[in-house]
Amino acid sequence: MFTKIIEKIKNADFILVTLSTVACSAMSFVFSVYNKSIVATKPLGIYSTCLLAMTYMNYAQFGVLNAYNRDYPQALGRRDMAEANKLKNTAMTFMVIVYTIIFVLFEAWVAIHYRGAIGSDTEGTYYAFGYMLCPIMIFLKSFDDMSNATVKMNGHYNKSAIIGFVRTVIALIIGVIAINVSGYYGLYAMTIASALLGIIMFRSEAFAGAKLTFDIPYMKLMIIGGLPLLINSLIWTIVQSVDKFVILGFLSTEALGVYSVPLMGFTTMVLVPQTISQVFYIKVSHLYGANHDENELLNKAAYFTRITALISGAACLFVFYVMPVFVHFFMPMYTDGTKATQILVIGVAIYSTTMLYGNIFSVLKLNKSLIANSIALCIFNAIFSSSLVLFVERSINMVAIGTGLSYALYSLLLVIKLSKRFKFSLWKLLINSWGPAVSILVPGLAVYSVIF
Prior knowledge:
Blueprint: H1 2-11, H2 13-36, H3 41-57, H4 64-77, H5 81-113, H6 122-153, H7 157-182, H8 189-206, H9 216-250, H10 253-291, H11 294-330, H12 338-352, H13 355-363, H14 367-391, H15 396-422, H16 426-451
C-alpha cells in the first residue's frame, strides 16, 4: 500500500512542483509586502526601473538558452545523451562568455555615468547601485534558471520542488534581514541569494560532467535555432514592459512604485499556471519527441489545459477578494494600487488558460506563428494602455485595464490560430481553456459586486 502511494505521488509530480512554486511565490509575495511596509514609493519605483534594465540583459544570450530548453528534452526523449550533453556544454560556455562581457561593459558605464552622483545625490546613488547589480543578478539568474530547468527536464520534478522551497526560505530570511539593515539597498538581496543558492543546490545534477566547450559552429547552430524563440520572448518581454514604459512616460517614477502592487499580484498569480504549463510542456515535448503525433499532442494539451484553467481561475478569484483588505492593512502607502491589482488579476485568469496552447507552437517549431502572436499582444498592449491613459484618465487603473484587455485578446487570438492550423474545434478549445476559469470567475465577481 505504501509503495503504491509513493508511486502515485511520483506520477503526480506536477502537483508537488506546483505546490512548491505556490509556496515560493507566497514567500516572494511576503517579501514584497514586507519591503513595501519599509520602503517608500519613489525608491521602489527606482528599484522597478533597475529591474526593467536587468530584464532586457537576459537577451544577450541570443537564443542559446531558448534552444537548449527546447531541444534538450527532445534529445532525452530520443535517448540521444551525446546530443543532450553537447547542448548543455555549449549553452553553458556561451553564457559564461556573453555575461562576462556584459558585466565589464555595464559596470564601466555605471562608473562613468554616475561618477558625480554616487555618494552626493541620494536618487543618483540609488540608480547607480541598482544598475551596478543588474549584470550580476542576470548572470546568476540565468544559470539558476538553466540548472533548475535541467533538473526538471531530467524528470526530477520533485527534487526541483524541494530544493526550490528550501532555497526560497533561506533567501527570504536573508532578504528580510537585509531590508531591515539597509532599506532600499536590501531590496536586491533576496533575488541574489535565491539565484546563488539555486545554482549551488542544483549543481550536482544539473552540471554533473559539464565542461566548457568552445564549439563555435555549434554555438551558431544553437543561435540560429533559438533566435526565433528569443525574438518571441523579447517581444513578450516588451509586452510585459509596455505598462511600465507608459507609466514612466506619461505618469511618474513614484506611480511606477505604486504600480508595483498590481505587478506583484500579476507576477504572483501567473506563476501558478506558468509552473503547471512548464511541467506539462516538458511532458508533451517528451511525448512529441518520441512519436511525433500531433493529434495526441493536442489531446494531451487539452487535458492539461483544463487542469491549469481550473486551478488558476480559483486562485485568481481568491486574490481578487483578499487583495483590497490585505493592501489596506499591510501596505497602507500603496492603497492606490488596489483597483489596478484586481483588474490585472482578472487578466491573468483569462490569459493563463491558454498558456499550454501557446507552448504547442514552440514544441512544433512554428516560430513564425509564435512571433506573430507575441507581436499582436505587444500592439494590443501599447494601443490600449496608451490610449486609455491619454484619452480617458492619467492613472495606473487605465494602464491595468489596457493590459488586461490585451491579454484577453491575445488568448482568443491564440485559440483561433490553433484551431485553424490544426483544424481542431474552436469551441472545444475554448471549453477546455476559458470554460473552467470563466465558470468560477463570473459567479464569483457577481457576488463581489453585490456585497461591495
